[in-house]
Amino acid sequence: MKDYCKRSPEGRKMTAPRARIIGSSPFVRAMVMMMMIFSGFVLVAESVIGVNWGTLSFHKLKPSTVVDLLKDNNIQKVKLFEADPLVLRALMGSGIQVMVGIPNEMLATLSFSPAAADLWVRQNVSTYIGKGGADIRYIAVGNEPFLTSYAGQFQSYVVPAMVNLQQSLARANLAGYVKLVVPCNADAYESNVPSQGAFRPELSQIMTQLVSFLNSNGSPFVVNIYPFLSLYGNSDFPQDYAFFEGTTHPVIDGSNTYYNAFDGNFDTLVAALSKIGYGQMPIVIGEVGWPTDGAVGANLTAARVFNQGLINQVLSNKGTPLRPGVPPMDIYLFSLLDEGAKSTLPGNFERHWGIFSFDGQAKYALNLGLGNKKLKNARNVQYLPSRWCVASPSKDLSDVANHMKVACNVADCTTLDYGGSCNSIGAKGNISYAFNSYYQLQMQNEQSCNFDGLGVVTFLDPSVGDCRFLVGVTDTSSSFRPYQRWVMSWILILWQVWAFRI
């Protein structure tokens, strides 16, 4: 089980809503929550399917368009990787439950400064929450901060930051409604078989502190599980074990048998929690999914089979061998939309996790168990004109390498690489794809299709089979890239804290 479903650090920027509580009065809700905290029993409730909404895209839909997409598909819960004001404003009044994330880089300041925690809560939660506002239920404090590849650089900040943020929520009279969580990677725990699961030795003490804190405040344990990464990173990993349709390589663990990697990984965490005295801790799956492009095994068919199998399994309330009849509280699919501006350090597949393409069009049929039998596309998407930039059929393309390098360094060409959907369209097709990706990113500026005379604009769609030549969208509502916006907002927080102290 050691290599099953771990996560690399570059792939995520930044998870988990509460189970449905019977009764509408504050007194009943408070009593049920106290029972959750002190009784030692898992609150059994129907799992809900949510999604991760990332915004690292070159072609951004308007946040209001994405919110409509969520509502049209009856998706009731969404996880954000940052407190994007445009997104949070779009979610106001939608009725969609929100988890908002805090980047790891903020943890140090939040751990040292209660004033910084107060300011963050005021700017990113209090501003949006309330009647007719955004229904913020969770704050994700960091994202997979205990990854082995981080070498402990965030480890000591997590619990102190949570303490300060909890006190800030209390001062804002939000502590009973907004819960703190810490999305953890599956590499936080390890074992050869699920029943022997344990947190990594160097994390034993801090995990005990963290889980105690979560338990005392009525928060679940949030974990990100990726069977695809196990398959991608290990040539000996049995392919059928990554899915939910049975396997010829089951894992035998005493009297229990595991037929898929997800259940095995989940129960490894259950065992690890049991070893530190919290075997009944509610668990939320913060990220889980399958990419559709950019690697061998990343394709539409595999993504549909995995995600549908996962959804069916979770909503069946079957549970796992160590938690029979008790599925995860909720699962958040990764992800809602493709993100063409993400880092490709973990692999080219990082830009292709969406169940929808960048423009909100469903990639494949998927029943989320939320009323619709298949996904509904985004409405009223505003596209650029139907034209594409391709390699000129009449020009010598022998010196095109530098032009392709420039185009692909700026735009997304990950579908051209081995295993990608456009890998087999030929050399000229590759050139055309690179030219067009750059051309669309430049909002179809005429000069951006020049490439020293090697490019030409066409009105005939050059898409071939599954290889789609995109047309950009016209939305320009986000004036800053996500990183720029994060830097600006954090500088403002630090300045106000400094000014307040003076």
From TrEMBL:
SUPFAM superfamilies, alphabetized = (Trans)glycosidases
Q: Which organism is it from?
A: Theobroma cacao (Cacao)
The principal localisation class reads membrane
Q: Where is the X8 domain?
A: 387-469
Catalytic EC class: hydrolase
Q: What is this protein called?
A: glucan endo-1,3-beta-D-glucosidase
What's the source species' lineage?
Eukaryota, Viridiplantae, Streptophyta, Embryophyta, Tracheophyta
Q: Which family does it belong to?
A: Belongs to the glycosyl hydrolase 17 family.
Question: Topologically, how does it sit relative to the membrane?
Answer: Lipid-anchor; GPI-anchor
Cellular component terms, GO, for this chain's entry? plasma membrane; side of membrane
Name the Gene Ontology molecular function terms of this record.
glucan endo-1,3-beta-D-glucosidase activity
Q: What reaction does this enzyme carry out catalytically? A: Hydrolysis of (1->3)-beta-D-glucosidic linkages in (1->3)-beta-D-glucans
Which InterPro entries would you find in this protein's record?
GH (IPR017853), Glyco_hydro_17 (IPR000490), Glyco_hydro_17_plant (IPR044965), X8 (IPR012946)
**Domain of life according to the entry:** Eukaryota
Q: What is its EC number?
A: 3.2.1.39
Q: Where found, per UniProt? A: Cell membrane
Biological process per Gene Ontology, one example term? defense response
PROSITE patterns for the chain: GLYCOSYL_HYDROL_F17
SMART domains in alphabetical order:
X8
Q: Where does this protein have coiled-coil stretches? A: none
Q: Which Pfam families match?
A: Glyco_hydro_17, X8
